[in-house]
Amino acid sequence: MIYILLVDDHAIFREGLKKIIENTSGMGVTGEANNGQEALDQVWKNKFDLVILDISLPGRSGLEILKEIKKSNPQLPVLILSMHSEDQYARRLLKAGASGYLKKDSAFDELVNAIRTIHDGHKYISPVVANILAEFIEKDADKEPHELLSDREFQVLCMIGTGKTVTEISKELSLSDKTISTYRARILEKMRMRTNADLTFYAISNKLVKN
Fold first, then answer.
1. pTM of whole model > 0.90?
2. Residue 79 forms beta bridges with which residues?
3. Which residues contact 88 (CB under 8 A, 6 or more apart)?
4. CATH 1.10.10.10 domain extents, the chain
5. What topology is assigned to 2-137 in CATH?
6. Which of 49, 79, 153, 211 is the most exposed place for a label (fewest CB within 10 A)?
7. What is the overall mean pLDDT for the chain?
8. pLDDT, position 61
9. In the beta sheet, which residues pair with residue 85?
10. 138 φψ region: left (φ > 0), alpha (ψ -120 to 50), beta (else)
11. Beta strand 78-82 with 100-103: parallel, antiparallel or unpaired?
């Protein structure tokens, strides 16, 4: 039996996914969390075979929670299930320790295959993610400007790219306006740009956000 912790802040989606998983032989949801802190509390107190984790959580991001999980329980596999395209986060999340990355609109059979593959001790790499990784490996040592950013800076860049203001970003990430402004200044400096418009154009052009 594969015991799964399901982490997603949308109760309806979580309940639907739970029913689907529990109707599949050999696996079941034995824990749920709707934010990062709840997820960490569950991991620290209970035993799971696998975590299904969303990226977009209130407060701390899924990427941060992934790193915390891998720090406290490095053997616990984490499958990322997100609405974001693979271009945005897949490589960073796999590098941070995720065992797989799937979009929420993936077919159910693919999700089941991913769970079983990861539970067997392997990484689950979809054809789309495999292509992204292959393209990255083929590139020269020179990095794209956004590859120079920290994970938090990259997250702020993507949010700026969607047109969100400093105040909106600070509320969503539970950080001060001053902190977000500092991240923005670092991003502009590292990427050698001057305005939010420059960052937005870059994010859209490089498919970091949807146009």
1. no
2. 52, 100
3. 158, 207, 208, 209
4. 145-205
5. Rossmann fold (3.40.50)
6. 211
7. 88
8. 84
9. none
10. alpha
11. parallel
